[in-house]
TrEMBL record:
Keywords: Signal. The keyword Signal applies. Residues 1-30 form the signal peptide. This is Lipoprotein. It comes from [Clostridium] clostridioforme 90A8. The lineage of its organism: Bacteria, Bacillati, Bacillota, Clostridia, Lachnospirales.
Amino acid sequence: MIKHRKSGFFRIAAAILMICFTLFGLTACAGTTDSKDNNDDNALIQGTWEIDTGSGAGYKFVDDKFMWLKSIENVNDNYWYGDVEYYNGAEAMEIAGLTEEELKSSLPGLKPENIFVTKLDPEKIITDGEDKTATNMNDQTLWTRLWLIEENEDNVVAVVFDLETFSMESYTKVK
């Protein structure tokens, strides 16, 4: 498991985005298209991300599919699975209500191409080997996440905001 120290980048990013969300609210993304067909634009977010709580949980993104795993070491049990749409750069910033001026003034080290919004549409839940989809999910389930990704010489890390609840988590890319 890769560890990283908490940097000032994440604290500043979290504070600025929470202020922006509180003051300006989220803007709707009218007239947007589905996720990009070019997976090269999404290469940075593709792969496996482990939450930095030590629980072993995390996300796995492969092309237009995602998994939320109770343990990234076990992809056969205890997971949510479904479709994902990716939005990157200016499109992701628009969905999140983040302006270019706010990005430049508050997060000058973060490049627009390192900003993603994922729209996760789960279609299957497996818990303890049993399909719980019918009892634990409805047709309205959709998770929208803002990913602020920082690449450095040691690893790739992300601060992830749930755009419905405004909760925040940190992840490290492991694969």
